[in-house]
């Protein structure tokens, strides 16, 4: 157990830094890392991805708050946009968690792998159409519901979709990252609640679980991710974020291919 807790602490440090620095919520690293840890610990194979996704979303709840606090000190969060996206994101995240409850662990792993490869491609080639202004309130709610739904199914805070969308809408990159981090909170909160609900009564869950939330991993990741998320958010205003994203995209490509072929 001591080795597992040290692993979770290290994972939290890495994920927290990336969450603050790149506005991705950390889930793209947390999910596969937790799945590997749970497999090593001998958890029921059919529940591994559900536990990894639910626990990842629960960690993002705390990580996003820490990251947003630092971004807000730079007055970078566009709060009216957060408010208009959040309603749809909450509904989408809840529906995504409910859908995940009906999917197999292997199916969820393949979905996550494909999503990771798409994110890697977007980061490398900056794939987005010509920009436009932010759409009206109803359209933003619709966009939010799609982002929330997909994010919940793959266990992330949605930054890998929210940030490119905001850039497409002509929001400056540092404001886009900060606003995306703020949007991660309602997605993660609703998604984690959904995984907690759909996991109730499931047999063969490991000890110290609440539905599909595994508390030792959740607490270990959160303890280290909070300070490191602040560090990462501060570095956003000092480091070449776009260059760093290219390197991170390579890591995502390796992770995605590995999971797809597993």
Explained architecture:
- There is one protein chain.
- The chain is mainly alpha-helical and 262 residues long.
- The protein has one domain (2-261).
- 77% of the residues lie in helices and 2% in strands.
- It is built from ten helices and two strands; from the N terminus they run ααααααααββαα.
- It has helices spanning 2-22, 27-40, 48-73, 79-100, 105-125, 137-154, 159-168, 173-198, 215-236, 241-261; strands spanning 209-210, 213-214.
- Strands 1-2 form a two-stranded antiparallel ribbon.
- The longest helix has 26 residues, at 48-73.
- It is globular and about 50 Å long.
- It starts with a helix and ends with a helix.
- The mean pLDDT is 87.
Short description:
The protein is mainly alpha-helical and 262 residues long. 77% of the residues lie in helices and 2% in strands.
Q: How many domains comprise the coordinates?
A: 1
Helix count equals 10
**Low-confidence residue ranges:** none
Q: End-to-end distance, in Å?
A: 26 Å
- Share of helix, binned: over 70%
Largest sheet: 2 strands, antiparallel
Strand content: under 5%
Mean pLDDT: 87
Structural class determined from secondary elements: mainly alpha
Number of strands: 2
Rg, Cα atoms, Å: 17 Å
Which geometry do the CA atoms define?
globular
Order of helices and strands: HHHHHHHHEEHH
Question: How do the strands of the widest beta sheet line up side by side?
Answer: 1-2
């Amino acid at each position: 157990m001591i080795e597992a807790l040290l692993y979770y602490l290290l994972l939290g440090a890495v994920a927290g830094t990336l969450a603050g620095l790149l506005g991705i919520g950390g889930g793209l690293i947390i999910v596969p890392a937790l799945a590997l840890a749970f497999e090593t610990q001998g958890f029921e194979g059919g529940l591994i991805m559900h536990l990894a996704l639910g626990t990842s979303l629960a960690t993002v709840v705390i990580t996003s708050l820490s990251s947003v606090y630092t971004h807000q000190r730079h007055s970078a969060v566009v709060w009216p946009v957060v408010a208009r996206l959040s309603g749809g994101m909450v509904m989408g995240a809840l529906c995504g968690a409910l859908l995940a409850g009906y999917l197999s662990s292997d199916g969820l792993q393949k979905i996550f792998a494909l999503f990771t490869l798409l994110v890697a491609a977007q980061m490398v080639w900056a794939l987005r159409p010509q920009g436009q202004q932010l759409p009206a309130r109803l359209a933003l709610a619709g966009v939010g519901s799609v982002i929330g739904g997909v994010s919940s199914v793959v266990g992330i805070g949605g930054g890998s979709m929210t940030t490119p969308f905001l850039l497409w809408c002509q929001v400056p990159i540092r404001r886009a990252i900060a606003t995306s981090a703020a949007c991660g909170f309602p997605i993660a909160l609703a998604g984690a609640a959904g995984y907690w609900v759909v996991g109730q009564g499931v047999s063969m869950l490991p000890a110290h679980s609440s539905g599909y939330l595994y508390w030792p991993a959740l607490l270990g990741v959160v303890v280290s991710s909070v300070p490191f998320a602040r560090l990462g958010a501060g570095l956003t205003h000092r480091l070449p974020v776009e260059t760093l994203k290219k390197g991170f995209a390579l890591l995502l490509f390796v992770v995605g291919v590995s999971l797809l072929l597993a």
